[in-house]
Amino acid sequence: MPEQLETALASLRPVLLDPTRLVRAVGAGRRRGPSRDAVRFERAELRPVDLKAGRALQIVTYGERAPITRNETYGPAAETAVDDLLAEPFGNWHVQTTTETIQLRVTKKGAAQVHRAAAVDTQHTGHDRAKPHLIDPGDPLFTALGAGASKRRQVDAFLRVLAGAVEDAGLATDRPLRVVDLGCGNAYLTFAAYRYLSEARDVDLLGVDVREEARDRNSAIAAELGWGERVRFEAGSILDAPAPAADVVLALHACDTATDDALAQAVRWQAPVVLAAPCCHHDLQRQLRSATTPAPYRVLTRHPILRERLGDALTDAFRAALLRRVGYRAEVIQFVDAEYTPRNTMIRAVRNVSPAESDGRDEYDELVRAWGVTPYLQTLLVDADG
User: Fold this and answer.
1) Considering Cα of 369, then 374, then 375, then 378, what sign does the dihedral take?
2) By CB atoms within 10 Å of each CB, which of 44, 88, 224, 368 scores lowest?
3) Residue 228 has what DSSP assignment?
């Protein structure tokens, strides 16, 4: 049942300030109402850490610039910091303790929906501890996929983004999580997503690819790993994919406009979480070659290599802006170092903002007019954008 928001947030305060009980807490998302200017942080993470001077509360805040980490001594300093964060207009709080997991979601009416589940977790308070692998490098999954160290590094980086997005979305936990990968290809990240997510809950995963050989190969691997009942693959186009009630939509290294097809399907399904790692960007590149370049950018498009890179950046900027227009909090990030894959850009989108509150509409329209192009995703989202 919904609770009064102030009361629910107040109940989190002693948990966040308990140095022996708190494991990790995340505040994320933006609730309905506050303008973007009133929001200082996109996300905040808290956990206890052991320093030479004693145990402290480590707070990492994410805004428009690089993350900022600070360690506050337990007492008045930590209390002030926690009070400030609880006053932020976050739409979700996810709190892990040594005994339970607390999920607080702010409803559209400004109330709090709180879910508590029993859990037994262990504190990791080392200040400079190495990040553990989210899937053990010796897991049979990597043997079945024939994945070496480079692929395992990509998997780990991808799973960290996936875990954060699922956490931010505050998805229901009383039923299986529904994951759809559109343009799944060889599906090594698809399998990794299932392996990781299914450790905590039931997961139903569907992979779609136009190639029948991909379906047959991936289905054989799923059977080999004993996942055949939960992990299915179908051959077909992205736009003809079945319309499940998807919780998470993935589009990982789908070529050119296939990424746009996947994003459009995710919007039509109103999927709460969308992760897309674009591959190539030929459609807008073709348009840029025939369009008149706005001054003073002719110095960039005069050089083919720079025009190509500019086209890549414009395409993904347009995609993120369009997702914001239809109700997503979207950001473009680097999800793994370039040494592991040159295609390391990811669009991370969580559906928790109403279209009326989305910003950037004027900037998007002005940018499209200036370049004289029509992003393919825009043509697919005409109905969704009204």
Assistant:
1) positive
2) 224
3) T
Domain extent listing, the chain: 5-118, 140-385
pLDDT reported for residue 299: 87
pLDDT of the residue at 172 = 80
Q: DSSP letters along 304-366, please? A: HHHHHHHHHHHHHHHHHHHHHHTT-EEEEEE-S-TTT-S--EEEEEE--S-GGG---HHHHHH
**Helix (H/G/I), strand (E/B), else coil: 278:** coil
Is 60 exceeded by the pLDDT of residue 386? no
Residues in contact with 304: Cβ distance below 8 Å, sequence separation at least 6, in sequence order = none
Burial group, residue 19, by CB count within 10 angstroms (0-12, 13-18, 19+): middle
Question: Which is nearest to 169 in space by CA: 83, 246, 61, 64?
Answer: 246
> For 282-323, what is each residue's pLDDT tens digit?
888 889 888 888 888 888 888 888 888 888 899 999 999 999
DSSP class of residue 237 equals -
**Distance of alpha carbon 364 from alpha carbon 386, whole angstroms:** 15
**Domain covering 140-385 in this structure, CATH number:** 3.40.50.150
What is the pTM assigned to this prediction?
0.69
Residues forming a β-bridge with 126: 50
288: phi then psi, degrees, rounded to nearest 5: -65, -35
Strands 203-209 and 248-252, bridge-based pairing: unpaired
Phi, psi angle pair for 5, to nearest 5°: -60, -45
Please give the structure tokens belonging to residue 76: 């008045």
Average pLDDT, the chain: 85
- Write the pLDDT tens digit of every residue in 192-222: 999 999 988 899 999 999 999 999 999 999 9
The H-or-E segment that residue 276 falls in is strand 273-277
Task: Look at residues 123, 118, 116, 125 and name the one whose alpha carbon lies nearest to residue 99.
Answer: 118
- Tokens 């610039």 locate to 65
